[in-house]
Amino acid sequence: MKAVIIGAGRIGCGLAGELLHASGYELVFVTRTADTAAALNRFGCYRVILTDKHGRREVTVPVACALDAGATESIIQAIAEAEVIVTAVCAQNLAAIAPLIAAGLSRRSCPANVLAFENMDNAGPHLRRLVRSAMLVPRDVNLHGFSGAVISRMVTQRIAHASGDQPLTFVGDTAPEFVVHGPALRSPLPSIQGMTAVDDYYPWVLRKLYTFSAGHATAAYLGWLKGYHYIHTAIRDAEIRSAVLTAMSEGQSGLAARYGSQFAGSKADLEKIVERFENAVINDPVTRVARDPHRKLGAKERLVGAARLAEEAGIFPQQLAMATAAALCFRNAEGRRAGDDAALGHDAACVSCVLNQVCGLDSENEFCRKVAISCEQLAPSYSSGNLLLSLTRPMWSWLS
Amino acid sequence: MKIGMLMIRHPQTRISPIMPEVVTLLQGWGCTVDIIYPEEQATQLSTVHADHDLYVLKSGTDLSLSLAGSLHARGARILNPYPVAATMRDKIVSTRILQAAGVPVPETFVTSHPRRLASLLDSGPLVLKPYRGSQGRGIHIIWDADELDDVSNDEGPVFAQRYHKPEGEDHKIYYVGGQMFGVRRIFPAKTYAEKIGTPFTITPELREMALRCSRAFGVELFGFDVVISEGRPYVVDIQSFPGFKGVPDAALRLADYIYAAGQRLLNGEPLISAGVTAANGVAV
User: Fold this and answer.
1) How far is the alpha carbon of B202 from chain A, nearest alpha carbon, in Å?
2) What is the distance between the alpha carbons of residues B237 and B247, in angstroms, rounded to a whole number?
3) Which residues have C-beta within 8 Å of that of residue A292, sequence separation ≥ 6?
4) Domain coordinates in residue numbering, chain B
């Protein structure tokens, strides 16, 4: 069995490659840079270090071949010969690789399944549309399956340089599970360790987004306000830990009301997520998890989406409001905030503009009002490097 | 990450939970932490090598400082770097650096014998401190020249500063990796509760002083004492790696800073964050 993995980054190597290898697939990687392809070919393998609170395990993953993005014909042929094609290239790069997938699939007479390990809720249908548009005979796309993948594993680091004397090494936690949309795939379904094919895919997207991702974002934005460098440090702060658990619980309540409490999970599930955030080997910087707040503050995203679902369930999302306000304060390394991308001003009145244009919230909405109040409390005191010393008794490190 | 911590063991009666918690946190994050008590061992000097990724110089004893200097000479990376820790330990040198950095300090005098300060008392009282002292030990407020006879100068140079009567409590400013924390406490603080003090929000003036201190010494881990007198702040002491008592989540913040510094070293980056450079010649 052959698999082509497009994207030799953290998810492509640290998750997809490791699981496909464990499931008996021979791996061909398509890389963005020639350096990475050369490193994979030079060693014929890479390493994955998997850690959790019980310890660490190192896996060596053999690589049959790595092709850099310029080797078009070889890539197309590899795709034509593969039963499974995985993408892990970031959503914005899917359009660039769709013609390669289209050309490769067009050479096949039997079905292949394409799994998009991308951070978007409709990755499968989106990629399918892109591939269909790139096919000479668009209906040929119907022969093949396309699904997104809801993953659990956090893979945060690539250590060892591509030009170094050690194989590329990726560090992640152990969680192997991922969910795909069964009806969107073609028989025979690939048998991959950790894979669960479900009939109703979207709730699984929301489940991850409104619990794990909501908690992760809450830890990052509050951790940033309180001056911590790493998620594993921030989550040790008792106030942040409590806020993270509450924010996830608020998201979980919304999920329970819509999909049932069994699907939404239990309090113990949330504690397990917090345990994963505590894993220092993952070494996840707060600024990495907090990056791109404009996207993460979207109406259906981890904070605002979870809050809206909680509100539908009659739960007022107090901590999600605080986390949303913190996300609106967050500035990236260039000093830009989520609202800056919308070219909005900074006065209190414009908090409502940001909440409307970035988060899709109506200023009459109670959650929106709460976020606006929190922003008004935080914004006047916030300045670069100043710390919020306490969430419950707002006190800043210095007077701005 | 392998960390060596130069520490001093405190008596069991003294409550000092922060550093043990820092050690526990770092170990929980996968660091190997070796605690070194220089006073409790006989160290063969020829075996002193930089065999840890990072050293943390918590103890301020002369032996620890000299051992840190030996490690520094062998290429060890130390928080705080030995030259800075040694400079901060010496009130004569550190005060001059603070003056040069524009940090307000009381008028300061040094001499070899207390009697030579007599004429200065015409302008007001003086505070005499051991020039390498710490924790408020050996401090005398001198109002009258006769009192100078009671001051011993057995411990070397005499360090004197103009006495400014404090208004209210002392202010301690702690600095951890660019983060600042203000704690008000009575002087001298005797009980643990008194040492914990009360957090306060730092004024722009105090913040500017903290930034000047950081730039002057080129470090991000220190504390200083401020006396407010007649509405004016004076820095009366600065310490490398103080106790950080009263800083919210102090152990977590220190562990976070030490871990991040270690990560920078492992990534081939400078020990001290970019942007913090010694402006007054403390070569690290």
Assistant:
1) 4
2) 18
3) none
4) 2-88+250-266, 90-103+166-239, 108-162
Looking at residue A258, what is its pLDDT?
98
**Omega before B204 cis (within 30°)?**
no
Which CATH code, of 3.30.1490, 3.40.30, 3.40.50, 1.10.3470, is assigned to B108-162? 3.30.1490
Q: pTM for this one?
A: 0.89
Check residue A339 and give its pLDDT: 62
Q: Which two tokens stand for residue B70?
A: 């030996």
Secondary structure letter of residue A347 according to DSSP: S
Tokens for B146? 């006769």
Measured CA to CA, the distance from residue B89 to residue B91 in angstroms comes to 6
Residue type, A380: P
Over pLDDT 90: what percentage of chain A? 77
Q: A136: pLDDT confidence band, cut at 50, 70 and 90?
A: very high
The answer to whether A246 touches A145, Cβ cutoff 8 Å, is: no
CA-based radius of gyration for chain B: 19
Query: Which is the CATH superfamily of the domain at B90-103+166-239?
Result: ATP-grasp fold, B domain (3.30.470.20)
Residue B280's pLDDT is what?
Answer: 45
Interchain CB contact of A385 with B (< 8 Å)? yes
Asked whether the beta carbons of residue A227 and residue B180 sit closer than 8 angstroms, the reply is no
Among A230, A385, A399, select the one facing B178 at the smallest CB separation: A385
Long-range CB contacts (within 8 A, 24+) of A320-323? A320/A214, A320/A218, A320/A247, A320/A250, A320/A251, A320/A367, A321/A367, A321/A370, A321/A371, A321/A374, A322/A222, A322/A243, A322/A374, A322/A391, A323/A214, A323/A217, A323/A218, A323/A221, A323/A222, A323/A243, A323/A247
Query: Domain B2-88+250-266 is of which CATH architecture?
Result: 3-Layer(aba) Sandwich (3.40)
**Is B179 in contact with A281 (Cβ distance < 8 A)?**
no
Interface contact flag, B248 A385, Cβ < 8 Å: no
Tally A–B CB contacts below 8 A: 57
Min Cα separation B177/chain A (Å):
10
Mean pLDDT score, A240-269? 98
Is pLDDT above 50 for B255? Answer: yes
Q: Which amino acid is at A166?
A: Q
Using beta carbons and an 8 Å cutoff, which residues of B are at the interface with A? 25, 28-30, 178-182, 199, 201-204, 206-207, 248-249, 252-253, 255-257, 259-260, 263
Nearest residue of B to residue A279 by CA position?
B29
Mean pLDDT across chain A: 92
Q: From chain B, pick out residues whose CB is under 8 angstroms from the CB of A390.
A: 248
Residue type, B177: G
In the prediction, which pLDDT does B277 show?
53
In A189-279, where do the E strands start and end? 195-198
Cα distance between residue B51 and residue B68, in whole Å: 13
**Is there a contact between B244 and B174 (Cβ–Cβ < 8 Å)?**
yes
DSSP for B213-265 reads: HHHHHT-SEEEEEEEEETTEEEEEEEEES---TT-TTHHHHHHHHHHHHHHHH
Residue/partner pairs of A69-74 with CB below 8 Å, 24 or more apart: A69/A30, A69/A31, A69/A32, A69/A33, A70/A34, A72/A100
Structural domains present in chain A: 2-199 (3.40.50.720), 203-397 (1.10.1040.10)
Would an 8 Å CB–CB cutoff place A390 in contact with chain B? yes
User: Could you tell me which of B97, B117, B98 has the C-alpha nearest to residue B158?
Assistant: B117
- CA-based nearest residue in chain A for residue B255: A233
